[in-house]
Amino acid sequence: MKGLESLARKFLYYPDPLPPDMPPPRWAGAAEEVWMRCRDGVRIHGLWWGEPEGAPVILFLHGNAQEAYSWSLVRRELEPLGCRMLLIDYHGYGKSGGEPHEAGLYLDGEAALAWLRERGVAGEDTVVFGKSLGGAVACEIAQERELAALVLESTFTSLASVARRLFPFLPRGAALGEEYRSLEKIGRARCPVLVIHGDRDELIPVEEGQELFRAAPEPKELFLVPGAGHNDVSLVAGDGYASRIKGFLETHVAR
């Protein structure tokens, strides 16, 4: 069974390494490289956009592939929100140490929140935004915590729920080792929740997002993007992507 767990993990995480001395890409703009240490001693890497000064912060938790430099393009998509942003790499991704695993990714999210607190950013000023696998990390760290908002995009209810799509080679009912039980956790959020999902998501069916939405506490909003798949939600939504998220934050997050 350990062999199956190892195989499942191999197909769940696709970390891309970055050379330690590689500077941020041009498209990352004024991003500052930052480091934080997790409770297991692993040092992880991130990018920080500190402007506009005093604005709320988006903690962006990315999907299961690539690294922070590639994901930094999301800063342009979310810049109309007028927020600062922290984008981190998980255990084993980019310049971060360690190897990716469920408990490690949760530690990464906790370390990012601690880093923000040390710089005077309260939970009430932090929007935790999780994309795909990052949404599972977001649900974990949002439990019983005062946050400005929780945003989930293209996120699954649990790994078991979508295992046949992600790991078609595994025997039915095989123990995966990783669980990511977001549906059990989202009800313990203490903040407004926005669930975003493409209605043609071929990897994480839209029903997964709808189920998370039903389990989320009020206040909450559901943003379904017609014609969008798993990786093109913002592209298909166009200008409506940032404007819808901005409207949600303006309605529910105090400035």
In short:
The chain has helices at residues 2-12, 68-71, 74-78, 102-118, 133-142, 159-166, 182-185, 206-215, 233-237, 239-252, and strands spanning 14-15, 32-37, 43-49, 57-61, 65-66, 84-88, 126-131, 149-153, 193-198, 220-225. It is of the alpha/beta class and 255 residues long.
Q: What is the topology?
A:
Blueprint: H1 2-12, E1 14-15, E2 32-37, E3 43-49, E4 57-61, E5 65-66, H2 68-71, H3 74-78, E6 84-88, H4 102-118, E7 126-131, H5 133-142, E8 149-153, H6 159-166, H7 182-185, E9 193-198, H8 206-215, E10 220-225, H9 233-237, H10 239-252
Parallel strand pairs: 1-5, 4-6, 4-7, 7-8, 8-9, 9-10
Antiparallel strand pairs: 2-3, 3-6
Helix pairs in contact: 4-5
- CATH top level label: Alpha Beta
Helix fraction?
25-40%
Low-confidence stretches: none
Span of the ends, CA to CA:
50 Å
The helix/strand class is alpha/beta
| Whole-number count of domains | 1
Textual characterization of the structure:
The protein has 255 residues and is of the alpha/beta class. The chain has a single domain (2-13, 25-252), classed as Alpha/Beta hydrolase fold, catalytic domain (Rossmann fold). Helix content is 35%, strand content 20%. It has ten helices and ten strands. The strands form two sheets. Strands 2-3-6-4-7-8-9-10 form an eight-stranded mixed sheet, with helices on both faces. A two-stranded parallel ribbon has the order 1-5. Helix 4 packs across helix 5 (133-142). The radius of gyration is 17 Å and the shape is globular. 44% of the residues are buried.
Features:
255 residues; 35% helix; 10 helices; Rossmann fold; single chain; eight-stranded mixed beta sheet
